[in-house]
Amino acid sequence: VRRGIPILLVYLERLRRWADARDTWTSRQIRSLLDPAQKETKILAALALLLVTAAWTFFGILEDVVSGDPLVRTDAAVYQILQDLRTPLGDSLMVSFTELGDTAVVIAIAVLVFLWLAWKRAWRTAAYWVAAIGGASAINTGIKVALHRARPTENLYSGWSDFSFPSGHSTENAVLYGFLAFLIARRVRPAWGLPVALAAAVLVALIAFSRLYLGAHWFSDVAGGLAFATAWLALLCIAYLHHQPTEKGAGGLLIVACAGLVVAGGANVYRRHAADMERYAVQYEAPSILAAAWWARDWQQSPVQRIDLAGEAEEPLTFQWAGGLERLEADLAQKGWRSPAPWTLAGALVWFTPHPGPIDLPTSPYIERGRLPSLTLVHPRAESDGTSSRFVLRMWATDIDLRNGHLTELWIGSVVDERLGNRFPLFTLAQAQPDANGPRDLLAASLGAGRLVTRADHRSTPVWDGQVLLAREGSIPANPGMGALPEGSASR
């Protein structure tokens, strides 16, 4: 700050002198941007940059949604994270926020603001207001109908509203309160401009987040809706500033808008809250399959690879377990598998030691489709070159129950080989190796029982041969091809 700002000011002064010495279109635009008296020019330049950035973001999200890029897999991860975090109090709050953004409330506030502008004879501003709300709603509906994207939760809405991308709540409320904040900020003292903008942004953010929390939209729906609304707002604000409306009759807009939000929003929450709590309730129904069917063929319904929070496919999921994790942990403990060090302050500081033990080093919390592992175990080993490494087993819930006289939980997992090294002084790195066969075979030998099966949808590679280890509590059937694995081997 001390050195950079003076240097920046020097170069800005040089740029201003260069522009003053010439009479071209470029030099005139530079003089306008650098002239302290030309505030509107700076605002127009900022809005133009915002328009380009928001439009690029929206079309990028749209391309990902249409082509099924990793962003779509991120949608599933974000959805799962938020559904796992839901609570009754959080549901009640988020339902209230989503009701404040319902179409009925948006229409009520839009009509009140329009009537106020008409009463003040601010006709040009009123025309922009109608174009802002009506145009955003029409374009949003057109994109929804064109894409026909399904919502995360079915049967929430009907008709055109049943489609998901982009989020109507996010788009309409961002345009409504964004353009309203723009109009108010131009008609109040400069000190009030920032609080008005922040209040509008917070309200829009809460409404948009409520759509994610309640499972009414995917993450890309909300992000796309906000990006489109920002681009649409920037375009309207540029046109509004270009025409320089002379009407001033909008001094009471803040009072009118707040009154509309309190009255219309409060009435909508009071009238619909009970029904909406039931509509947006968490769906706890978990699919179930026959245990015999899973053992024979339905194990292939489970995902092939772990998907991280960024939507990228990571290591293969080479283990499936039917039963309680306590039993699995107890069985593996007899073969040298241990729980890793917890993520405490003392545990985190172990990363800054040159040669920590494999058990003393905390493991990275890998995310599988939005879920943290329910069980993590570590099996240490020493390499011939003196370096240390460890096998790390992580297990995630599947929300699938197996029926076999009683319900049994089904878990999926991955086993990775992590090499511990010191690329930097006093800092240890745990680098996962690409090989998936060796760690899986070690796990099979530790269990001493199970079944190795080959996925039909995966081509064998040196990194992974496509085989998955199935295991379950109790005895393993002695049918051909389904026998127990002797300890220390992994028969294929």
Task: Outline the secondary-structure elements.
Blueprint lengths: L3 H17 L4 H10 L4 H29 L2 H15 L3 H13 L2 H17 L3 H25 L20 H18 L4 H24 L5 H25 L9 H27 L8 E3 H6 L8 E3 L5 E4 L2 E4 L2 H9 L11 H5 L25 E8 L5 E16 L3 E18 L2 E6 L4 H11 L3 E4 L12 E6 L20
Parallel strand pairs: 1-6, 4-10
Antiparallel strand pairs: 2-3, 4-7, 5-6, 6-7, 7-8, 9-10
Keywords:
eight-stranded mixed sheet, Vanadium-containing Chloroperoxidase, domain 1, globular, 15 helices, 492 residues, alpha+beta, two-stranded antiparallel ribbon
Q: What helical percentage do the residues reach? A: 40-55%
Can you give the mean pLDDT? 82
Rg of Cα set: 30 Å
Which regions contain 5 or more consecutive residues with pLDDT less than 50?
Answer: 475-492
